[in-house]
Amino acid sequence: MNLSTGVVLAAGEGTRLRPLTQTRPKPMLPVCNRPIVEYVLDALVDAGVSELVLVVGYKRGRVQDHIGSTYRGHPVTYVHQRKQLGSGHALLQAREAVDGPFVSVNGDRVIDPQTVADVLDGFDGETATMAVREHANATAYPNGAVRLDDGRVTELVEQPDDPYRLINAGVYAFPSGWFDRLAATGRRDGDLYLPDAIVELTAERAVLGVRTEGLWVDITYPWDLLEATRRLLDAGLADERTADPGVYVHETARVHDRATLQAPVVVGPDAEIAAGVVVGPNTALGRNVTIAANATVERSLIGADTRIGSGTTLRDCVTGTAGEFGPGVVVPGGVADVHIGTDVHENERLGAIAGDRVTLRGGACCEPGTVLGVDATVGVGAVARDRVGTGAEVVR
Amino acid sequence: MCGIIGCVGRGSATLDTLLGGLDTLDYRGYDSAGVALAGSSVQTGKKAGELDALRSHLADRSLSGAVGIGHTRWSTHGPPTDANAHPHCDCTGEVAVVHNGIIENYQTLRDELASDHAFESDTDTEVIPHLIETLLADHDPETAVRRTLDRLEGSFAIAVAIADTGAIFAARQDSPLVLGVDDDATYVASDVPAFREHTDRVVYLDDGQLVRLDDDGYAVSEFDGTPRDPPVETVEWDPEATGKAGYDHFMLKEIHEQPRALRQCLQGRVDELAGSVTLDIDPDVDRVQFVACGTSYHAALYGAALFRAAGTPARAFLAHEYATQTPPIEDDLVVAVSQSGETADTLAAIREADRRGADTLALTNVVGSTMARECTDALFIRSGPEIGVAASKTFSAQLTAVNLLALATVGAGDGDLRDLIGALRDLPADLQTVLDGSDAERVAREYVDSESFFFIGRGYHHPVALEGALKLKEISYTHAEGFAAGELKHGTLALVTPDTPVFAVVTGDDEAARKTIGNVKEVEARDAPVVAITDGASDVERYADAVLDVPATHARTAAVLANVQLQLVAYHVANELGRSIDKPRNLAKSVTVE
Prior knowledge:
The structure holds two protein chains of two kinds. Chain A is of the alpha/beta class. Chain A has two domains: 5-217, Spore Coat Polysaccharide Biosynthesis Protein SpsA, Chain A, CATH 3.90.550; 238-394, 3 Solenoid (UDP N-Acetylglucosamine Acyltransferase, domain 1), CATH 2.160.10. Chain A contains seven helices and 40 strands. Chain B has three domains: 3-240, Aminohydrolase, N-terminal nucleophile (Ntn) domain (Glutamine Phosphoribosylpyrophosphate, subunit 1, domain 1, 4-Layer Sandwich); 244-431, Rossmann fold (3-Layer(aba) Sandwich), CATH 3.40.50.10490; 438-594, Rossmann fold, CATH 3.40.50. Chain B is of the alpha/beta class. In chain B, helix 8 (294-309) packs parallel to helix 12 (393-409) and helix 12 (393-409) packs antiparallel against helix 17 (555-576). Chain A binds chain B through residues 23, 54, 56, 60-61, 64-65, 67-70, 73, 75-76, 78, 80, 252, 254, 256, 269-270, 272, 274, 287-288, 290, 292, 304-305, 321-322, 357, and chain B through 238, 240-247, 253, 256-257, 259-260, 263, 266-268, 271-274, 422, 425-426, 428-430, 432-433, 435-436.
């Protein structure tokens, strides 16, 4: 059935994506130059949802400033989750803004309109309905593995020991009265999780599960953004103008005749690329990025307003906004062990992750797997490795 | 100053259409509001106070009529009372009129009509329905309106509803009026947002034109009856782009929109690698006179300094002074700075300049505004709609656009062109950095109870000091003054006490910065709290009680960033004081009276 209202949960930080999420919530991270939340809103609008409700919290101004009060002509209402007390608590904040049945979607995962349309097709107006999909690693998937029986969800479990094939895709249609049920759901250490409200219903087979196969990209770690961008570029989903197959250049970007763009690549609005620069493959340059002569950028996501000096080489990088990479900076890329929080991820292919406003002065280098905090500086000719904290400076 | 709306073809939705339109126009003035609906008779409802007062007044009355007019008023003649609210009617109650502007000969007309007509208000407007009433005795309604227009002197936009005509008549003379055209309905309003929800097709009326709206659509003619067929244009603004997007006030939303506004202003106009600035205009620039008022005047002062830095004689004038005491014009390009492009004082100034043969250029936000159409050239600042009465994003965009104008026409002067273009391209990100890390709310809390605030700055920071003070005055109702840093000791220092915080804008570490720091020491010696807005290059922080940081950049762009900190200070002081931030008392967004 058609539903007019969609609630997007966009309040989460995404701690495993620091330092990128130190200055923006996870839904505002760019994939293929567009924030994730835009793909989610597109999926809703294309599936016929016209009233958009965004639950915002962590760094909410970033979402509000970017989306504004309408999205593609449809009104957007913001509700503020003041404390981060779980996905169920987030959804509950939308109670006053929603009337009747509605769609609920996570704002931090790229989905396509078909996934939403499939859930709406399966929804009968009275029975909670969720999207499920096959996943290679369903048992480890944090939002829950699922078993279906004749279109009914019989199990929704977190990280089970025995094998599962299906996962909870995070797209739901809920009937009127859902908020009452959600509010009555048991909390865990004070937090209220949306899947818990569904688990309570699975025993009585009161939840419909709809199998979906559309595009669906989950992002957990910074390097997932590289993979996600590659998949969207492969799917031809960049929205900039195509010059050659796989080469997307915004009409306001200025690319020198003697610069080389290797597909797939996307160049954002207002970007400037000088002579002798080589960009791509699998690279997205954000809005207003400037690249001086003879620099090379491969397999990287470069945040908006970043400046890359002449002769600099960046490989396998994910950078925040407004970075400054002086002339002759080298991030050679490659495989390394990466420190994220208290975990070490072994053998990830990663040149460097940089938070917003990092400065790498001329001749600076990053060993593979370096994580640079927001406002970090690497001095002239200095070598950064492992982790450089927020505002810290590497002098040699 | 006031806002007008009229509609034909909305049937039973007429009243809702009018009220919805007034909602979007109330930034133009808001001390009283009213509507009139016309069918076989004319029914009016009006009330002093904000629109909600009118809404509750209308709730227990059932107004109906197939056509209607509405008005929000900002007082020029007579206090804001129910009687002075528009619409005004004739003695029979068959003619209702809403009006924006001033009827200069209203006293003469009133004296002439007084013996046969009963006047109920103190307004100049009320002469119009009574004149029409008199003329209706011998003429059809349209002719009666034309003959009335012939009698009026001054500036006006009016809309008239007359019983049993099924029509609205509207006319424009020196006050904005625009038509909205839909398949089965037609609108007329002071500004596009009033009907943008219903249609994006608009017709801009020119001075001296009358339009008749009825079931057949609309017909435009000169006051003398000569038919005209002005073009129908399409406007792009999204009707919902004027929501608050989750912020408590439009002003705060608009402050946070500034990075985007500046991107739009710069887009396609700068090429850093080529070192070029390209505008779609190419005026001759030997000398420049800027004319503007209020916040736009501060942008004009800043702009004049940019041209002087490149060796081009340039001065900024207050438009209302310029219009009545026009300086000599020798090959000067006269640049009018006005967000709305409708500021009556500024229009008067450029008309005077035009009369004297000068080329004119409008620096404005509104495509299709009177100024954009009347000036030789127009440069648009591309900020999108600004609803908060106190300008924020449009000021930053004015500063950015005037930089583009100077670089494109006279170059960078002593600066390096590529460096300057680079600094401009860095502005959106630098501005975001200011927004993300600002301490302004804490500073505002600390000093909210002060008796007076002073703002000082030198060079490009002088206009910023003036604007910082104006913003604080406008929205917090607290006394504030801005000065060129060196001027304080020539008098105003006498007012500086421990209860008067001084905000000093100091960036870089050049001679100007060091001199301003000298001025900071003067106030510090009088125990005034000092708040430094600085990039940290100099040692001003040693003399400051609080610091508001801006990223290091060129002095020209640093002024834009420093101003954002002062916007936030003004906002948070006003918010602490519980002021009506988006609609400060006595003020209107677009000042269309002289």
